[in-house]
SH3 domain-containing protein
Amino acid sequence: MEKNNKKIILGIVLIAVIIIGAIIFVFAQKHIKISKLEKTAEKYIEIGDYENAITTYNKLILKKDDVEYIEKLDLAKKLKKSDESFQEGEKQYKNSNYSKAILSYSEVIEKDKDNYKAAKDRIKSIKEIYISEIDSTIEDLDFEKAESKLAEYKDVLDEETIVSYKEKIAKNKEEEEKEQQEQKEKEELALAKAELEELMKEAARISKQNLAANPDYRSVYYVTSNKANIRSGPSINSSIITYVSQGSSVYIYDIVEDIGRTWCRAIITSSVTGNSYDGWISSRNLDYSL
C-alpha cells in the first residue's frame, strides 16, 4: 500500500513537472517571438522601412498590449509621414515649386534623423534663392517687382530680413529717382544751352544784316539802371523771368515798338552771376536809346 502511494505521488510530481515545463516552454517561445519581432521592427525603423515597421508593431501589440509598443507604433507612423513629406519636398524642389517645397520640408520632424538636417538645408537654400531673386530685381531697378517678391516670400523670410530689404529697396529707389532727376536736369540744361547758342547765332546773323544796312547800328548794349526786369514778352504785363543788375550785357536781336516804349528781344548776361537769359528788356534800362 505504501509502495503504491509513492508511485502515485511520483506520477503526480512528474505530471506537474511536465506541465510546468510545457508552460515555461510556451512562454519562452512567445518571448523569443516577441523579442524577434522587436528586433525586426527596430531594424525596419533603422533602414527607413516605416511601412513594415508599422505592420510589425501592430503584430507586437496583438501579442502583448504594451504601452511601449503603442508609443513606438505612433512614432513609426510619424516617421513615415515625415519621410513622405521630405520626398514630396524633394519633388517640388526639383520642379522649382519652392513655396510648396518649403511647406513639405517644414513637416519633417526632428526625430527623422535621415531627413531632418537635409530638409533644413533645403529650406535655407530656398531662402537664399529668394534673396537672390530680390537682389536681382533691385539691380535691374525694378523696385515694384522687388517689393512684390518680398511680399510673396514674407512667410518664408524672417522679420529681420524683410525689414532690411524694405529699407534696401526704399534706399535704392530714392537714389535711382535722384539720379534720374539729375540726369533730366542735365539734359534740360544741355538743351537750354543748345537753344541759347542757336539764338546767339540768330542774333549775330540779324546784327550783321542791320549793320550792313546801317553802319551806326550796334547790337550789344549795357544795363544802366540799378535793376532791370527781364520779361517773357514785349509788354509791362508780361511775366518777369528774372532781373539783372547794372553793367549786364544785352545782345539785341529783335525790337518791338510799344506805346512810349521800345522792347528789345535779347540775350542778356548778368554782370553778377554770369548767367545768360533769353527775354525782353525795355530800352529805358540801356545805355543808348534806340
Q: What stands out?
A: Residues 159-213 form the longest helix (55 residues). The chain is about 65% helix and 15% strand. The domain at 192-285 is CATH 2.30.30.40 (SH3 type barrels.). The chain has a mean pLDDT of 83.
